[in-house]
Structure formats: C-alpha cells, structure tokens
From TrEMBL:
Enzyme Commission number(s) of this protein: 2.4.2.17
Gene: hisG
Activation/inhibition comment: Feedback inhibited by histidine.
Pathway: Amino-acid biosynthesis; L-histidine biosynthesis; L-histidine from 5-phospho-alpha-D-ribose 1-diphosphate: step 1/9
Gene3D superfamilies xref list: 3.30.70.120, Periplasmic binding protein-like II
Function: Catalyzes the condensation of ATP and 5-phosphoribose 1-diphosphate to form N'-(5'-phosphoribosyl)-ATP (PR-ATP). Has a crucial role in the pathway because the rate of histidine biosynthesis seems to be controlled primarily by regulation of HisG enzymatic activity.
Protein name, per record: ATP phosphoribosyltransferase
Pfam families: HisG (PF01634), HisG_C (PF08029)
Catalytic activity: 1-(5-phospho-beta-D-ribosyl)-ATP + diphosphate = 5-phospho-alpha-D-ribose 1-diphosphate + ATP
Length: 286
C-alpha cells in the first residue's frame, strides 16, 4: 500500500485560515468547512484531519496523525514527544505576565509568593524556575484575564496579541515570557516513505515562504548608472540587464528581498532608475 501523510489542522480558530491557505499555495487541494472531520487531497498523497488545536500534539505523538500545525505555545505546553519541523511565521502571539493596571511593577521579583492564574502552567513554571521566583500557579482553562478582578490571583500569564483584552480587563502587560508562532510538527519517527512525502511538502512550503519575502523588480536605468544600481540589486545570481530601444538605456530585472527593497529604493532612484515596477512572486525555488 502506498503511503499517505495524515495532517492534523485546527478545525476553526486562529490557525485555520492561514493553515488552509498555506496548503493551497503549495498546490495541495482538499475540501474543508461544511463540518467535515477529514478530507483526502485530490492531488497529493495527504489526508487532513480537522481538530481542536489542543488535541493536535497528542494525536501526532500517538501516530493518529503524522504531521500537524499548532501554535508553538500549545506544542511546548503539551510536553509531547514531537518534532518541530518548520516555523510557519503566522499566528504570532506572545505569552505575557500581566497585573492590575493600578499596581506598581518593579520587576519579576514582585511575583514572589503571589498567585498567578494561567492556562500555561508548564511554560510559566519553567520561566519562574529560571528566574528563581517561587509563586503559586493557579491553572484555569479559559478567561484567565478575569482572575485578578474576582480575587482569584494577583497576576495572570496569558496569550497576548494586541493587548486589547488585557486593557478591557484593567490589566497591564509587564513581562513577555514566550514568543509563539504557528509551527509544523511531526511524529518523531516517520517511516521512510512518509519522510520523503514530508520532504516534498517542505520543499513546497519553503518555495512559498521565499516568494513571500521577495519581489521581482524591473526598472529602466541610464547605462552610466548600471554598476551602481547592480550593486544595490544583488538578485538570485546577478541582475539581468537588457538594452532598451532608447540609446544609452537599459532595463534591469532582479529579485529583491522585501526589506532590502525599502532600504535601497531611495539609493536606486537617486542613482537614476526610472519606471520601477515591483511585482509579487508566486513561487521561488533556490
Ligand atoms: P480550539 O477550538 O481549536 O481549541 P482555541 O480557542 O484553543 O481553539 P485559538 O484562539 O483559535 O485557539 O488560537 C489558536 C492559536 O493561535 C493559539 O494557541 C496561539 O498560538 C495563536 N494565537 C495568535 N494570536 C492569538 C490571540 N490573539 N489569542 C489567542 N491565540 C492566538
Ligand atoms: Mg484550543
């Protein structure tokens, strides 16, 4: 029987859209939504399972699924024996300590002997141990941010992305203890055939990610400025330069990192470049 990768994704939540989008961009088609619990891809040997995110690390460890996408916070907190295969760069958030807004904060030692409410006892416990702080961890599974208001704890440790939930509960963020993003996890021992399917998938994911970080740039430049402009546009090997119909001018084509683009665009313009086009790249294979 030929192998098929079983991939666990969050059914619906903050990871779902970007996870589905990633596979779409990798050219892997499958149906989702409409209350389905699983779906087989029509063009890649993969079957997708739609689950609560908290269940994904366990299913991957137990071999119900071969791969999964979860927040690193959930993967670490689960303490499961799973491998992090790749960082995916979406669903970014941080795990932070917060205290009532009116309270003074002089540093982590302020939490000594205090009660801290969290759904992340493992990550928080490790952090406190590293900081040599002994405090009581009070585990609650949801709505952690109301704990100080009802006298359950003096501080909380919870996921923050914009900080608006903290604000509306009268809390302030005082310390970031963990930074998270979505990660691709795998069972620690994959059979050879599954491993080679995973390698194929990773190849595609990397091509999609590289394309997102880079732009194709086309511009016109006077020949006298070419050397300077070429040095500002390193490209994958080196820029392509072709003569324009207008005497003394060339067209320059290159690939540029999004960040380098904004850094260098002024220099490129003042070197004499005109008609600059910046075009998104769909896939990029090194
Ligand atoms: P499920 O119903 O699958 O158990 P959930 O409610 O536990 O979902 P979500 O709120 O969808 O989980 O968050 C999933 C993951 O998205 C989090 O574990 C975290 O890694 C990430 N995330 C990103 N931003 C936020 C945020 N603002 N709040 C919570 N989680 C966030
Ligand atoms: Mg959950």
């Amino acid at each position: 029987m030929s192998s098929i990768l079983r991939i666990a994704l969050q059914k619906s939540g903050r990871l779902s859209e970007d996870s589905y989008q990633l596979f779409k961009e990798c050219g892997i088609r499958f149906d989702y939504g409409t209350g389905k619990l699983k779906s087989v891809s029509s063009n890649f040997p993969a079957e997708f399972l739609f689950l609560r995110d908290d269940d994904i690390p366990g299913y991957v460890e137990d071999g119900v699924a071969d791969l999964g996408i979860v927040g690193e916070n959930v993967a670490v907190e689960s303490a499961r024996n799973i491998d992090t295969v790749h960082r995916l760069g979406f669903s970014k958030c941080r795990l932070s300590l917060a205290i009532p807004r009116g309270n003074e904060w002089n540093g982590i030692q302020d939490l000594s002997g205090k009660n801290i409410a969290t759904s992340y006892p493992l990550i928080l416990g490790n952090y406190l141990r590293d900081q040599n702080i002994s405090a009581d961890i009070h585990v609650i599974s949801g709505s952690v941010e109301i704990a100080p208001g009802i006298g359950l704890a003096e501080a909380i440790c919870d996921i923050v992305s914009s900080g608006s939930t903290l604000l509306s509960n009268g809390l302030k963020e005082v310390e970031v203890i963990f930074r998270s993003e979505a990660i691709l996890i795998a069972r620690s021992t994959l059979e050879t055939e599954k491993q080679s399917l995973l390698d194929k998938l990773l190849f595609r994911i990397k091509a999609v990610q590289a394309a997102k970080n880079n732009k194709y740039i086309v511009l016109n430049a006077p020949n006298a400025a070419l050397d300077q402009i070429k040095s500002l546009l390193p490209g994958m090997k080196s820029p392509t330069v072709t003569p324009l119909a207008t005497e003394g001018w060339s067209s320059v084509h290159s690939v540029i990192n999004e960040n380098d683009f904004w850094e260098n665009i002024e220099a490129i313009r003042s070197a004499g470049a005109q008609g600059i086009l910046v075009i998104p790249i769909e896939k990029m294979i090194y």
